[in-house]
């Protein structure tokens, strides 16, 4: 009887140990799955295109941060901006089940749908530069685009004052052309809105909005064609720096227009743009911090994937100004890009 009771107790203890062992093993396997090694994490950056050098600073600093974190990074995009091609690239990343994506997109139904598809598949998605706030993306990192447009307009008014050009005269309108990428790109439209709100009570009137389809080559072509047909335009607001990548000699009509008193302001600061500003073709620039969009965007998404740290929905990177006062200093701190 005593032996029988001990045997029952013995088997009960073994059963408990077995159950605990299974529970601990399952928990360990679960923790192992959650604690994915850094070497196995792959995050893809998807800029709007590869032919726009403005993204190179983001690329270089994202690469450096990926090395620091010990993770895999991919930089993939269509050569020239094409919405369908970019969406197909995002679809291919979903099919490969990458861990995360940082994308520059439009806030349109097609982009919203593909981002939501990625999120539903368990892929962490953030946006940089251009946002899709109506999607399920985790966060956006970039400038306050409305503020950038407003600050550019403030700089324009300062330039006009310095040139003794009256922007309040009721007798004459200052005819203005705006060059943008594509309408419907939320970041670009907000820059335009900020600009227009600031100049609303002036005699600055928009004659045309020219869309260059986010193409550097097309922007140069369209700018030269426009000024050949409209040499009497007074002001140009470049919503982005598309045509600033070429030397002044590649812009003969733009050179002639600026020499004859035309005033040009724009958004994006980099070495080639500063050279054009030094030559007098551009008069005031507002820059965005692409380097931080690359490094901080990557590390923020990594911390969410690796440790579950949920970031703020909006991470603002701030603005930089280039004018007559600091132009020479900026030419020393900004160097030509090294394409790797």
UniProtKB/TrEMBL annotation:
Q: Which SUPFAM superfamilies match?
A: Periplasmic binding protein-like I
Segments forming domain Periplasmic binding protein:
43-306
Q: Record's InterPro entries?
A: Bact_Solute-Bind_Prot2, Peripla_BP_I, SBP_2_dom
Location(s) in or outside the cell: Cell envelope
| Xref: Pfam families | Peripla_BP_4
Q: Which residues cross the membrane?
A: none
Protein name, per record: Monosaccharide ABC transporter substrate-binding protein (CUT2 family)
What is the species of this protein? Answer: Halanaerobium saccharolyticum
């Amino acid at each position: 009887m005593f032996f029988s009771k001990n045997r029952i107790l013995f088997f009960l203890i073994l059963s408990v140990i077995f159950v605990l062992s299974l529970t601990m093993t399952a928990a360990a396997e679960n923790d192992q799955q959650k604690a994915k090694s850094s070497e196995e994490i792959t995050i893809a950056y998807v800029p709007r295109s590869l032919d726009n050098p403005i993204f190179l600073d983001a690329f270089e600093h994202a690469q450096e941060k990926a090395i620091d974190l010990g993770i895999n990074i991919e930089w993939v995009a269509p050569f020239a901006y094409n919405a369908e091609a970019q969406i197909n690239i995002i679809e291919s990343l979903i099919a490969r089940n990458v861990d995360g994506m940082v994308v520059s997109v439009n806030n349109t139904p097609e982009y919203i749908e593909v981002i939501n598809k990625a999120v539903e598949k368990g892929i962490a998605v953030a946006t940089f530069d251009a946002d899709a706030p109506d999607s399920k993306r985790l966060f956006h990192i970039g400038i306050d685009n409305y503020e950038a447009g407003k600050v550019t307009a403030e700089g324009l008014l300062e330039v006009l004052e310095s040139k003794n050009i009256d922007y309040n005269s009721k007798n004459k309108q200052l005819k203005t052309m705006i060059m943008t990428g594509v309408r419907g790109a939320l970041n670009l439209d907000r820059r335009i809105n900020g600009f227009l709100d600031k100049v609303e009570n002036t005699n600055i009137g928009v004659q045309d909005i020219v869309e260059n389809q986010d193409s550097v080559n097309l922007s140069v072509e369209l700018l030269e064609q426009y000024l050949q047909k409209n040499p009497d335009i007074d002001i140009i607001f470049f919503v982005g720096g598309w045509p600033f990548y070429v030397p002044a000699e590649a812009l003969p009509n733009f050179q002639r227009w600026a020499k004859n008193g035309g005033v040009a302001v724009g958004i994006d600061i980099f070495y080639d743009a500063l050279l054009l500003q030094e030559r007098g073709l551009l008069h005031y620039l507002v820059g965005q911090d692409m380097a931080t969009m690359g490094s901080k965007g990557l590390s923020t998404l990594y911390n969410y994937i690796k440790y579950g740290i949920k970031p703020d929905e909006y991470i603002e990177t701030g603005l930089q100004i280039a004018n007559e006062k600091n132009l020479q200093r900026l030419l020393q701190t900004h160097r030509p890009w090294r394409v790797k």
